[in-house]
């Protein structure tokens, strides 16, 4: 039988987890909506309904909040992207563009700010490595086995599927989502067709 103390400890642990989740959810919304430099710990605290000190207690710094948000966004994106079937170009690109529709604008803003904020640059490196791993999972069977050639074609696929391509098509050229998916899928199909093993 549990004691009152263990119930209290359990309640505190649940409250701590819930508070952390609330802070992360508020921070994620802010980062998706605003430039990196415009999101402050005070704004995160206000949006999550906690004190500035509570945010610091959970994350220590803005870099800690960024890491938490980046991990949450990556987990959400991985779940969506990995639902695609390996080798299915249209399905993979539809999943990728779906993720970009959700976080692409913020992703571009973060990339543009990364040279001024080391904590952000580190997260962008992690995101690029994750994207490359996804490319291997989706299209690796169609890539050359020789390491130098394989890396070259991974670079080409990375360029064809980068968030900046999505931005060019969706924001700059004002293409709709279907056109964007078709263009990116055509780029990937062209790369894979051009590979001679």
From TrEMBL:
Q: Which key words are in the record?
A: DNA-binding, Transcription, Transcription regulation
| Residue stretches making up the HTH tetR-type domain | 17-77
Instruction: Give the top-rank taxon of the lineage listed in the UniProt record for this protein.
Output: Bacteria
Q: Which InterPro entries match?
A: Homeodomain-like_sf, HTH-type_TetR-like_transc_reg, HTH_TetR
Tell me the Pfam families matching this sequence.
Answer: TetR_N
Indicate yes or no for the key word Transcription. Answer: yes
What GO molecular functions are on record for this protein?
A: DNA-binding transcription factor activity; transcription cis-regulatory region binding
DNA-binding positions are 40-59
Kindly provide the name given to this protein in its UniProt entry: TetR/AcrR family transcriptional regulator
């Amino acid at each position: 039988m549990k004691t009152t103390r263990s119930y209290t400890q359990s309640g505190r642990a649940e409250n701590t987890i819930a508070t952390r989740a609330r802070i992360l959810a508020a921070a994620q919304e802010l980062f998706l909506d605003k430039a990196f430099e415009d999101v402050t710990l005070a704004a995160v605290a206000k949006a999550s309904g906690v004190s500035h000190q509570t945010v610091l207690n959970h994350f220590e710094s803005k870099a800690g909040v960024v890491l938490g948000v980046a991990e949450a966004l990556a987990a959400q994106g991985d779940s969506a992207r990995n639902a695609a079937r390996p080798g299915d170009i249209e399905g993979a690109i539809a999943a990728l563009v779906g993720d970009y529709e959700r976080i692409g604008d913020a992703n571009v803003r973060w990339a543009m700010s990364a040279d001024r904020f080391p904590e952000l640059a580190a997260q962008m490196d992690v995101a690029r490595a994750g994207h490359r791993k996804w490319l291997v999972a989706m299209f690796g069977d169609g890539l050359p086995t020789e390491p130098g050639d394989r890396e070259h074609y991974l670079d080409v696929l990375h360029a064809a599927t980068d968030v900046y391509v999505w931005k060019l098509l969706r924001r700059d050229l004002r293409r709709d989502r279907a056109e964007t998916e078709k263009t990116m899928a055509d780029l990937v199909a062209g790369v894979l067709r051009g590979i001679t093993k």
